[in-house]
Amino acid sequence: MKSMKYTAGLLLMVAAAGCSKVQDNTGANGVYREAHRPQLHFSPRENWMNDPNGMVFHNGEYHLFYQYYPDSTIWGPMHWGHTVSTDLVHWTHLPVALYPDSLGMIFSGSAVVDKDNTSGFGTPEKPALVAVYTYHDPVGEKQGRNDFQTQGIAYSTDNGRNWTKYKNNPVISNPGQRDFRDPKVFWHEESKKWVMILVAGDHAELYGSPDLKSWAKLSDFGKEYGAHGGVWECPDLFPLTVGGEQERKWIMIVNINPGAPNGGSGTQYFIGGFDGTRFTCDTPPAKTSWIDYGPDNYAGITWSNAPGDKKIFIGWMSNWAYAQAVPTSPWRSANTLPRELKLVRINDSLRVSSTPWPDVEKQKADVKNFGRLVVNDSLDLMSGTATAMIEGSVEAKDFFFTLSNGNGEKVTVGYELKTNRFFIDRKSSGKIDFSTDFSRDITAPRFASGQMITFTMVADVSSIEVFFDDGATVMTALFFPRQSYDRLKMYSPSGGVKIDSLSVSRLAPIW
Ligand code: FRU
Q1: What secondary structure letter does DSSP report for 58?
Q2: Phi, psi of 67, rounded to the nearest 5 degrees
Q3: What span, in angstroms and rounded, lies between the C-alpha atoms of 483 and 406?
Q4: Residue 476: helix, strand or coil by DSSP?
Q5: 233 CA distance to ligand 1 centroid (A)?
Q6: Phi first, then psi: what are they for 177, rounded to 5°?
Q7: 179 in contact with ligand 1, CB cutoff 6 A
Q8: From the CB of 1, is ligand 1 less than 6 Å away?
Q9: Distance linking the first and last C-alpha atoms of the chain
Q10: Are 252 and 198 in contact (CB under 8 A)?
Q11: Which residue, by CA, sits nearest to atom 8 of ligand 1?
Q12: Per-residue pLDDT tens for 348-380?
């Protein structure tokens, strides 16, 4: 992210402090039924949202905080908005959790349950939630200093409803690094300490702490690794094991903007080891791997303390290249669907796969099964709904699906055998002239090599998320048709494409 984004000033920040609105979350009276409003994804009732923050599961609730500017539909002085869910599908809006203060705006970060009360903020019986975030001081920035980002903490002893900022903030001061932000914290059992990963421009830094308050630097990673087309942002670090195997690997997520494979913002990852001090990458320095090849999944990280130790990921469903110009009102931006991340072995290499959170299926209505068939030209799959899940298994030959409306606007998602690539084409998808970056080609490699390609696609009014080959290749893209898409067709341009299974389900709104 360019610092230009931060130009909305301190005055606005002061004006914003102190107003706490609980948002309406019903679909009544047209609320949540506006043009382009996602019906299945989390979006704030109104105003600007970017990164998901502080995701933590506690006492039966999945907390989701987010970068929020409550006074405008463009980026401004950052707060942490707050919502909770018991199923990661339906969301209850809560008041803003963290407001800017004299140390600065509240940038991205994470939250943990301090189960052993290492911080002393709670009790072992009633552990505190501790949020760890970046302070961005716009005054220091304006003065041309390079130490204006520091790390702070806040805690809650009432299930995240009220937050108290730690009196000795910041807990990590700035070492003279312009970009120094987005702390993600986890408990490392083997070395019995808290570990924080944060990003510092072109690399990640690891810190350790006994109590979440005093932190000591452990190591650096990444100057020579992966993509460096932009600044590193929003990192994560967690273990995963391939199903049925013994060896545990550590996955480091590093968001980057710009420099993603299809332009602008994207989420890369590294697979390696972590010994409590240092991350060592298994793959060569030049290798890049991406969580999602679509243009609209950024700043994603995983939930802390999720049941069953699952790695549940959610991203901001937009791209800094045009996020502030997308034609929505009175809100700007939604999140991706929550996704489960897994480590999978494909043709002897390891990859991180993503699949939509299973409870999304609870919204299925009117399931239509097409069974086994061969598509020689085209096949009508659906009419009349803009929110649907399409699942199936199709032969690895040229094919594409088209979502369209009566205006001739359409978005196309498919596979090209010759290049062995998936693609999304949104050049004729509707409103595209708000940014020249919006209509570029979007492609993704196929990693699996089976004769059949499995897929799950979730279309939701103004977005499509496609999970090919059990989530080995994932693409997420936005679109803004002038009239809702209400038709879905499959095409086989070269004829004779076998389908083993195919079903289309309308999805009921969550709002
Ligand atoms: C990523 C990001 C973070 C920062 C936040 C500010 O989109 O730039 O690095 O903390 O957004 O809103």
Answers
A1: E
A2: -60, 120
A3: 8
A4: strand
A5: 7
A6: -125, 115
A7: no
A8: yes
A9: 31
A10: no
A11: 1
A12: 999 999 999 999 999 999 999 999 999 999 999
What span, in angstroms and rounded, lies between the C-alpha atoms of 501 and 359? 21
Does residue 5 sit in helix, strand or coil? helix
How far is the C-alpha of 430 from the C-alpha of 442, rounded, in Å? 16
The pTM score is 0.95
* CA distance linking residue 1 with residue 264, whole number of Å: 10
Mean pLDDT throughout 56-81? Answer: 98
Q: Hey, which residues are catalytic here?
A: 51
Q: Which amino acid is at 159?
A: N
pLDDT tens by residue, 213-227: 999 999 999 999 999
pLDDT in tens, 416-439: 999 999 999 999 999 999 999 999
pLDDT at position 24 is 55
CA–CA distance, 472 with 182 (Å, rounded to integer): 27
Residue 53 CB less than 6 A away from ligand 1 = no
Q: State the residue for tokens 């072995």.
A: 345
β-strand pairing of 331-332 with 47-58: parallel
Length of the chain: 511
Q: Which two tokens stand for residue 374?
A: 């061969």
Residue that the structure tokens 């038709």 belong to: 487
* Residue 139 three-state SS: helix
Pocket test residue of 3, 4, 7, 51 for ligand 1, highest count of atoms within 8 A of CB = 51
